[in-house]
């Protein structure tokens, strides 16, 4: 058998593999995590991904949706995709039960620059469902915890019941990720932080900004202000990474849909260095 | 500019022997595609005989204007370029990229078997050779290779034809893509009154040329071919100043000219359909009535379509202004970052086929003449 | 400990301000300022967290923001407003640096080498607060909620 490079599809990029829903975890309202198994054991064996990459989930007769992989890259076999009901494909997916089959192409795209964070501090800044593409990065940082300095997660949601994966925070905290959550709108029972996530970055201590990396995923406005805050704290622009979202159709850089200036978000992204796209982030409709 | 090929590579093919070229190609299993008149335009379609070529016809082109006109000679290739380009064969407007069947053990996906159709393109102009080279980079430059384009491209036999006239919409000289065919062909023809000066550009071309009933080319014929080709150079009036064009456009994304051109643009997608390098497409599912057999069909799409940048929580490019800006900045600027070449080959099709005659060379010049970065030194 | 608010101040200003400031530990649950009431001190949070609450009839006290290290509160008195616009309540034991408003105003008015940088840092703090409030207002995760 030929060896397969980690993080690229093992076959014809147009060919979807059959996957089966092994389990479904309801996360927050309108969001569920689908645990997928490959029908073909050899496809499972040859599949490996890097944190931040995505798959095209294909529901025959409906279409495809680009969904980031949210499981631990070291765990082979089952792949997790945390999906928010938004369009036709995800609406149809929400109707599918355990045992249903559909197609999967991937993995595609760039990944979080974990190896460029070595020995420095890492700050993950995210909001809402943006935590899903960062969860594999959290797992990898935990798997290799001794290779990094302080690891801090700053996570914001609209309201307390919009916080994803909340059952895992204690485990992350216990294993060396400083988990900080905040909500835009507090409920009376909420004892945690209120305010936007950039405020957490504004006030957290940054001991060695030159060696601190920021990995950010969320709405573009949030990422823009996160970068602004990070730059204000002396973190170099080369160490700020964001994950972009655009219409994805082919996922292989051949259909043109996902362009963001010179960047094909599907193959040059979704994870890009902030300074490589910053000039376009505030151009309306670009 | 043009690479001078040694004259021994050139032969003379009398028009009386022209049909043999098509016959030989067909005998070798090629589907020969060439220019022909259909619905008052010169288009590309399958041909079996030189009789089907637009003998004695030419095209008159202006921004937003295209008309056929009878020539006063019997030239086979006495026109420039029409609404079609060869991308319709290499990158078909509609094709199946994959399929899915519902089985007892769930959905099974397949991709189609390799293509078996071999195309021979007769009448490929220099700008079109450049366009094919551009699409080669797009579809086969990696990291992913499009299997459909790749199959068709590898099997294609290309017979170029040097332009002997230029339309007012042509600006290939500006783009360094023509009018002389210098590479990327198997055979290249320059049409004279009674025949063609033929040159081979590949081993396959040489081999085919050796089977044609050619004659030794005379110095007079070579000189005549050269002067015909020079006419296409001399007739070009349109220009696009490409100096620093990438930065010019990407640093002027908020220029008022975008609104101005956006108010004229109809968003009809014509420019992207006729463009020989535009590659935007969409894949959509087509299913049988039972919902158990599904084809994934890829069709040409356009960045001018509103749905093109649609996401579940909103559309990125909501206005025609934003979509025109996307098209032009991609074509002339970010294409350089992506594929290390311009996306424009200077064929002028987008100018001719724009219903309101928008001329990209004029749009770039307007931005250049009022470059808002040159004075302030920074973007807004 | 380096706080964003004071780290930008010139040494001379920091020394002069230290002369009028006091450190104060606020116990969990204790109020620093109360909405609608005059407050005669400006607080800079050194550690811990302070909730900013506003009273909304029918909803009670609504937490609109949480402040942490490096952030200031109760600037109303200093900038001449009529009273605090929110209630500040310590969410845990919180270390603060406290500036009495009359001494601070006096210092800023008489010594512009202190007054200008101080007001500039305060303006930056207010600007940051305004940006975060706007981002909150944008309700960026609204589409994610059903």
Please give a structural write-up.
Chain A has 2 domains: 92 residues, Elongation Factor Tu (Ef-tu), domain 3, CATH 2.40.30; 168 residues, Rossmann fold, CATH 3.40.50. In chain A, the strands form 3 sheets. Chain A has a 7-stranded mixed β-sheet with strand order 10-9-8-7-11-12-15, sandwiched between helices. In chain A, strands 4-3-6-1-2-5 form a 6-stranded antiparallel β-sheet. In chain A, strands 13-14 form a two-stranded antiparallel ribbon. The longest helix of chain A has 13 residues. Chain A has 286 residues and is an alpha/beta fold. In chain A, 21% of the residues lie in helices and 30% in strands. By secondary structure, chain B is α+β, with helices and mostly antiparallel strands. Chain B has 2 domains: 227 residues, no CATH class; 132 residues, no CATH class. Chain B has 14 helices and 16 strands. In chain B, strands 3-2-8-9-10-11-1-12 form an 8-stranded mixed β-sheet. In chain B, strands 7-6-14-13 form a 4-stranded antiparallel β-sheet, with no helix packed on it. A two-stranded antiparallel ribbon of chain B has the order 4-5. In chain B, a hairpin with a 2-residue loop joins strand 4 and strand 5. In chain B, helix 9 packs across helix 11. The longest helix of chain B is centred in the last third of the chain and has 20 residues. The N terminus and C terminus of chain B are likely disordered. By secondary structure, chain C is an alpha+beta fold. Chain C has one domain: Jelly Rolls. Chain C is 38% helix and 29% strand. Chain C contains 5 helices and 8 strands. A 4-stranded antiparallel β-sheet of chain C has the order 1-8-3-6. In chain C, helix 2 packs across helix 5 and helix 4 packs across helix 5. The mean pLDDT of chain C is 90. Chains A and C meet through strand 10, helix 5 and helix 6 of A and strand 5 and helix 5 of C.
Q: Order of strands across the biggest sheet of chain C?
A: 1-8-3-6
CATH topology of chain C: Jelly Rolls
Overall, the morphology of chain B is globular
Q: What does the main sheet of chain B amount to?
A: 8 strands, mixed
Biggest interface reads: A-B, 45 and 54 residues
The counted number of beta strands of chain B is 16
């Amino acid at each position: 058998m030929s060896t397969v490079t980690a993080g690229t599809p093992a076959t014809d990029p147009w060919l979807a593999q059959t996957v089966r829903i092994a389990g479904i975890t309801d996360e927050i309202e309108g969001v569920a995590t689908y645990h997928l198994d490959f029908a073909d054991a050899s496809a499972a064996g040859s599949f490996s991904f890097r944190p931040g990459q995505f798959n095209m989930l294909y529901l025959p007769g409906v279409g495809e949706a680009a969904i980031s992989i949210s499981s631990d890259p070291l765990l082979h076999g089952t792949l997790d995709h945390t999906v928010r009901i938004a369009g036709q494909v995800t609406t149809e997916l929400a109707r599918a039960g355990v045992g249903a089959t559909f197609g999967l192409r991937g993995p595609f795209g760039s990944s979080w620059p974990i190896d460029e964070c070595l020995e420095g501090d890492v700050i993950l800044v995210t909001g809402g469902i943006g935590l899903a593409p960062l969860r594999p990065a959290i797992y990898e940082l935990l798997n290799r915890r001794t290779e990094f300095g302080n690891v801090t997660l700053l996570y914001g949601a609209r309201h307390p019941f919009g916080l994803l994966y909340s059952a895992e925070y204690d485990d992350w905290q216990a294993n060396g990720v400083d988990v900080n959550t905040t909500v835009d709108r507090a409920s009376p029972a909420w004892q945690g932080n209120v305010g936007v996530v950039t405020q957490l970055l504004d006030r957290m201590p940054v001991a060695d900004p030159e060696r601190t990396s920021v990995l950010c995923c969320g709405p573009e406005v949030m990422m823009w202000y996160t970068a602004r805050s990070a730059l204000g704290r002396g973190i170099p622009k080369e160490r700020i990474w964001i994950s972009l979202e655009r219409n994805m159709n082919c996922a292989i850089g051949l259909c043109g849909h996902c362009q963001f200036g010179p960047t094909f978000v599907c193959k040059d992204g979704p994870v890009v260095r902030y300074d490589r796209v910053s000039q376009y982030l505030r151009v309306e409709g670009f | 500019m043009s690479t001078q090929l040694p004259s021994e590579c050139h032969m003379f093919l009398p028009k009386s022997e022209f049909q043999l070229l098509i016959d030989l190609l067909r005998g070798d299993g090629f589907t020969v595609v060439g220019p022909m008149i259909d619905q008052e335009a010169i288009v590309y379609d399958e041909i079996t005989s030189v009789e089907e070529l637009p003998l004695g016809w030419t095209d008159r082109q202006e921004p937003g204007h295209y008309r056929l006109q009878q020539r006063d000679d019997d030239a086979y290739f006495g026109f420039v370029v029409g609404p079609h380009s060869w991308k319709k064969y290499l990158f078909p407007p509609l094709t199946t990229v994959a399929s899915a069947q519902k089985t007892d053990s769930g959905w099974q996906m397949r991709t189609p078997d390799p293509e078996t159709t071999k195309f021979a393109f007769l009448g490929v102009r220099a700008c079109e050779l450049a366009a094919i080279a551009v699409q080669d980079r797009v579809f086969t430059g990696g990291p992913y290779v499009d299997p459909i384009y790749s199959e068709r491209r590898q099997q294609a036999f290309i017979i170029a034809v040097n332009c002997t006239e230029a339309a007012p919409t042509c600006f290939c000289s500006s783009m360094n893509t023509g009018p002389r065919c210098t590479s990327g062909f198997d055979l290249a023809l320059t049409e004279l009154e009674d025949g063609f000066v033929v040159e081979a550009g590949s081993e396959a071309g040489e081999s085919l040329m050796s089977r044609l009933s050619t004659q030794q080319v005379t110095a007079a014929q070579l000189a005549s071919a050269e002067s015909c080709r020079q006419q296409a150079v001399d007739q070009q009036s349109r220009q696009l100043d490409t100096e620093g064009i990438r930065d010019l456009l990407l640093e002027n994304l908020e220029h008022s000219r975008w609104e101005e051109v956006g108010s004229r643009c109809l968003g009809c997608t014509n420019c992207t359909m006729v463009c020989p390098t535009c590659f935007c497409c969409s894949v959509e599912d087509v299913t049988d009535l039972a919902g158990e057999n599904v084809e994934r069909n890829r069709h040409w799409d356009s960045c001018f379509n509103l749905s093109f940048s649609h996401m579940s929580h909103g559309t990125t490019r909501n206005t025609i202004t934003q979509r025109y800006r996307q098209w032009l900045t991609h074509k002339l600027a970010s294409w350089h970052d992506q594929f290390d070449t311009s996306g424009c080959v200077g064929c002028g099709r987008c100018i001719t086929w724009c219903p309101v005659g928008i001329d990209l060379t004029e749009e770039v010049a307007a931005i250049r003449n009022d470059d808002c970065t040159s004075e302030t030194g920074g973007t807004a | 400990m380096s706080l964003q608010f004071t780290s930008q101040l010139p040494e001379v200003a920091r020394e002069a301000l230290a002369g009028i400031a006091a450190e104060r530990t606020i116990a969990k649950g204790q109020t620093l300022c109360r909405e609608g009431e005059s407050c005669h001190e400006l607080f800079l949070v050194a550690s811990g967290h302070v909730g900013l609450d506003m009273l909304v009839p029918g909803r009670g006290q609504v937490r609109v923001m949480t402040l942490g290290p490096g952030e200031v509160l109760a600037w109303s008195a200093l900038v001449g407003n009529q009273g605090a616009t929110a209630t500040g309540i310590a969410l845990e034991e919180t270390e603060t640096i406290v500036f009495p408003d009359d001494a601070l105003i006096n210092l800023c008015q008489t010594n512009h080498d202190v007054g200008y940088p101080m007001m500039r840092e305060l303006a930056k703090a207010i600007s940051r607060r305004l940006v975060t409030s706007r981002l909150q207002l944008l309700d960026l995760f609204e589409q994610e909620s059903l």
